[in-house]
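Before going further, learn to read the protein records used in this course. The integers have meaning only within a learned vocabulary of local backbone shapes. To see the layout at work, look at the sequence and tokens printed below.
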Amino acid sequence: MKNPFGSQEDHGSYVNLRSRLFQSVQSANINDQILQVIKKSLEAEKVVLSRPERTRLFSQIVKLVSEDLAKKLEDGSIPV
């Protein structure tokens, strides 16, 4: 008989911490919130884009936001 408690994660450990944090961020729907802000801003600009242009623009903006966040984490602008 297998130990029923053996396969449970130890939430205080470093094992799989990165994936647990990523899952937590995903469940917060932060990506959806960022996309909604971009969509609203684009609508306010009243610019007509094709689907590929819109997809490329969204990708570029998300990349810029991610780079900005990483930079702020590295230089200590955002306390961790």
Remarks:
- The CA atoms of residues 19 and 61 lie 24 Å apart.
- Helices lie at 17-27, 30-45, 51-75.
